[in-house]
Structures are given as C-alpha cells and as structure tokens.
Amino acid sequence: MHRQSNLLLPTERQAPADAEAISHKLMVRAGLIRQIGSGLWSWLPAGWRVHERIVQIIREELDAIGGQEMLMPVLVPAELWKRSGRYGIDELFKLRDRRDAELVLSMTHEEVVTTHVAQVVRSYRDLPLILYHFQTKERDEPRPRAGVLRTREFIMKDAYTFDRDAAGLEEGYQKHIVAYDRIFDRTGLEWYRVESDVGMMGGLGAHEYMAPAPAGENDVALAPGYAANVEVASADPQPVAELQLEGEFHTPGMTTIEAVATHLGVGTGNLLKAFPVITEARGLVTVFVRGDHRVNDIKLQNALGEAFRPAEAGELPGPGGFLGPTGQGVEVYDEAVTPGRYVAGANREDYHVVVEVPAGDRLDVRTVQEGDLVDGNPITVEPAIEVGNIFKLGTRYSEPLDATYLDVDGREQFVWMGSYGIGPARIAAAAVEQFADDNGISWPRALAPWDVHVVALGKEDELAAAEALAREIEAEGLSVLLDDRPLRPGEKFADAELLGCPLRLTVGKRALESGTAEVQVRRGREARGGVPLQGGAPAVAELW
Ligand code: ATP
Ligand code: MG
Ligand code: MG
Ligand code: MG
C-alpha cells in the first residue's frame, strides 16, 4: 500500500503554459511526469508505475512467442552505423570520447544486435532467434512535443528476429503480429494495425500500430477491410494533381521516396498513398500504379541494365513481386490485388533501379483525400499516435554487417531479419488521450498506477478503518493508494479524479456510521453503492 502523505505526487491545478495535447497537460497536472529540457522528461513514481505496467505486458507477450530478453548499450561505436549506411541520419546523436574515437547514441539497435548475431551464429541450427530489450533511445527530434509523445530520450522495446530465409522471416513476423495484437488489446487502448512506409529502417514491408487520438501526428486512412497510414503532409495538404515527374531523384542521404516527396512538397506517407508515381529511382523504390497496368507491364532493371525477375512462391516479396539480380525484392500490387496501390520495395542505398512503363503514360500524383480510394467504400481519415511499428528487414542489415550462416548444404547465406518496436511512453500518453474527461485521467484497468484509490476523510477513526480496508483489498491481489492526507474532501476528490485510478473508495464519517465505504468507478464517474468496511474486499475484487 502506498500512502499519499509521503508520496512524490505533485498535482497541479494549472497545466504548463506551452501544453496543447491533453496527455501533456494531464500527465503533468497529475504529477506523473516532469520536464527537464526540450524533449527530456523524468517519470515521477506514479507515472513510472504506469510505464512499468506497460513494460510488463509487453515482456509477457514477447516471452510467449519465444523472445529472449537481453540488454545492449546506448553508446556504440560510430563505425557500425557507417557500415550500415545510416550514419548520415539527422536524428542520430554523434559524439567523441577523450581519445577522439567517434561514437553514436543509439536511436535503435539493428546495427548492434546484427553485429552480435554475425559473431555468434554459425549454422542453420542456431536459427531462428527472437532477441529483445527495453533500452533508452536517443533521437535528436526536430520538434519534440506533447509531453512524452515525442521526446528526445525514451525507452523502446525493440525486438529482432533472425531467420534462415524469407519463409522464416514471414513466420517470425506473423508471431509478432499475434504478440502485438495481444499487447495492444491488453493495454485497453483503441488501436489499428495499418500498412506503413518502411522509412529509415529499409526493408520489405511494414505495419504500424496506431492509437486514434486528436493529438496524433499521423493520419490513418480507413475503409472497411482497409487501414493504412497517411502521414501528415509536411507541406501542402492539397492534391498534387496530374504532375509530370521526370528525371532521377538522387539526393544524398535521402531515399528516393523522400526525394520525390520533397520535390513535390508532400509527406512521404502521402506519396505512398498517391496514385501512380513512376520514376527512375535510386535506393528505396516506391512505385504506384493506376489504371490498366498489370504487374507484367512493369519492367525493373538495375543500373547495370540487369533485369529483375518475377518472384516465385516462397520467395520474398512473393508472387507478383520482383527479385533483383542480387536478391533485392520489390513488392508490386497491381490494382487487381490492392486497388490503386503499389506498395514499396526496398534496396540498398547504392542500388539503382529503373522502372519502365509503356510509353505514353502520364504520371499523376495526388494525395489521399477523405472520401476517395477503396473498393467503392469512402475513405475516412483519422489522426492517430504511432505506438508500435514492425518491419520485414530481409537482408538489409545482415549484408553490410556480414551476418551469415551455413545452410544444410554448407553454403554461406545471409540471415533474414525483422525488427519490431514499441514505445511504452506513447502507450501511456495515448491511453490518457483516449479516455480522459474534464476531471482528469481515466486509466484503462491494466495501466492504472494503482487499481484502487482509498480516500480517507477525517481523522484517526476514519483513517484506521480506511487502512484496514486497504490492507484487505491488497490481500485480494489489487494495488492500493491510500489518501491519508489531512486535506479537505474537495481537494482529495479532485486529485483522485485527476490521477484516474479505476476505482475509488471513500471512507469518511458516513462510512463509519453505515459500515460501508462509498464506491465510485472513475470511467464515467459512476457511483456504485457501497462495500462493507470490514470483509468488503472480495466485493471490491468482484467490482474489478
Ligand atoms: P515517429 O514516426 O512518430 O517519429 P518512428 O517511426 O520514428 O516514430 P520507430 O523508429 O518506428 O518510430 O520506433 C518504434 C516506436 O518507438 C514507435 O512506434 C513509437 O512508439 C516509439 N517512438 C519513436 N519515436 C519516439 C519519440 N521521439 N518519443 C517517444 N516514443 C517514440
Ligand atoms: Mg521518428
Ligand atoms: Mg513513424
Ligand atoms: Mg515507426
């Protein structure tokens, strides 16, 4: 049992002046978090309890699919990031030690974990592996914002799968979908799993887990049986109609899709949702096909003029996709498969792909709009918070970091990888966003800092009765916060509603007289009668 009289739980009447997001305002006001610099936050004891409950849910579900928890350092040699080709990322913090050696602060851990696997995995018998950790990530975000929704330092659960081949990766990926679906169900959040851009990770395909909330920086496009990420356009949100795209989009440090998006002044997510973009491309290739094109109208070749061949069943990216001469995959969906969409394929940064289409085709680009796009059903667009992201990496990291194994026939093969992230802080903030009311936070039961808030009103007798009840409730396996502070009832209730524990029991003079504590359910602020002061704990557990 925690006693509020000696707990560091500094509640505030006023939200910080710069706060706009509900979670920013309420998490500060409820005494859960405090800021120390731009995008830098401390978790105070009650907030940390929420964070760690989320961590525990994630841990249990990853262990259930065979994940092995470990810990890798934040500070790592810059060399690894140079080898993977990601040293140029702006968000990456770079520094030097006293001997002038170059280091980076990890913003994710593909480079480190792949290096370990490269050293220890020898044969096909050592695979598959699922490795994960909870570790601090450092990102020099251009716009830290909204309390803990976008910070420069945060804890991420990042998991990595290592498999023998594409089929193995597919299995590991599907296991993570099962685990992630369970994790987000257990948190009590409202959530969607959506198709997404592979972004800076590179790779063969990705999904994001999105929690709808007005404070979200992503837009989710939804139609029956369809959900995809429409990243908020960085610039002009208007359709970019019938735009002729010519030439090559080679911009150092940018994937093609980023270069094209920059050229058009739209977000990459919008471009991903755009109808046809057909361009000569270097690096990450994303092509959208509209109209009567069929997959076989598209020819892919690399810079040396070597052709991509159609992929076969069992090969990534699967039938309908293409494989480059050295195994690079390009996924293609024509309109018969996914109306109006081609989905991204990926290549190494130094890889040059030419996409040819029949002569005379015009290249149109437009952004997804509310009301467009899918199978005769209008699309709706909702703002959402990205709470998790899973990626099929393929051999994107095992090639530059040389992670290979010997197959059954003794041949050396690259390890196939997947990468899977979740931000517990964002889950906490998303829960605040989704369920708060005018009086404060209303935690989903699985995330609350305490299950039951027992509020004692009055002096010795009331306090003694409240304590006895709290002890009984704890014996039922629930966690209890006891408000034993000598404050006015109004102040105590206001704090309890701000903090948002799911059940509140009040023990005052009336309770002593009647022998029952009043019960209030936080969600909806609904009175639920009373429970006996003595022997009432089972009734509380039942309400739970
Ligand atoms: P965003 O698009 O919001 O910048 P991201 O795509 O860069 O996020 P990932 O690299 O996919 O993030 O990281 C995995 C998870 O880590 C995200 O889904 C999110 O839950 C969390 N996360 C990422 N960046 C931040 C941040 N700056 N602050 C808090 N959590 C974050
Ligand atoms: Mg980011
Ligand atoms: Mg993202
Ligand atoms: Mg992401």
UniProtKB/TrEMBL annotation:
InterPro entries the UniProt entry points to: aa-tRNA-synt_IIb, aa-tRNA-synth_II, aa-tRNA-synth_II/BPL/LPL, Anticodon-bd, Anticodon-bd_dom_sf, Pro-tRNA-ligase_IIa, Pro-tRNA-synth_IIa_bac-type, Pro-tRNA_synthetase
Top EC class of this enzyme: ligase
EC number of this enzyme: 6.1.1.15
Pfam families membership: HGTP_anticodon (PF03129), tRNA-synt_2b (PF00587), tRNA_edit (PF04073)
A Gene Ontology cellular-component term: cytosol
Any Gene Ontology biological process: prolyl-tRNA aminoacylation
Gene3D superfamilies, alphabetized: Anticodon-binding domain, Bira Bifunctional Protein, Domain 2
Reaction catalysed by this enzyme: tRNA(Pro) + L-proline + ATP = L-prolyl-tRNA(Pro) + AMP + diphosphate
Keyword Aminoacyl-tRNA synthetase in annotation: yes
GO molecular function: aminoacyl-tRNA deacylase activity; ATP binding; proline-tRNA ligase activity
Keywords for this protein: Aminoacyl-tRNA synthetase, ATP-binding, Cytoplasm, Ligase, Nucleotide-binding, Protein biosynthesis
Alphabetized SUPFAM superfamilies for the sequence: Class II aaRS ABD-related, Class II aaRS and biotin synthetases, YbaK/ProRS associated domain
Domain Aminoacyl-transfer RNA synthetases class-II family profile: 45-444
NCBIfam families cross-referenced by the UniProt entry: PRK09194.1, proS_fam_II
The protein's name: Proline--tRNA ligase
Organism of provenance: Capillimicrobium parvum
Organism ancestry: Bacteria, Bacillati, Actinomycetota, Thermoleophilia, Solirubrobacterales
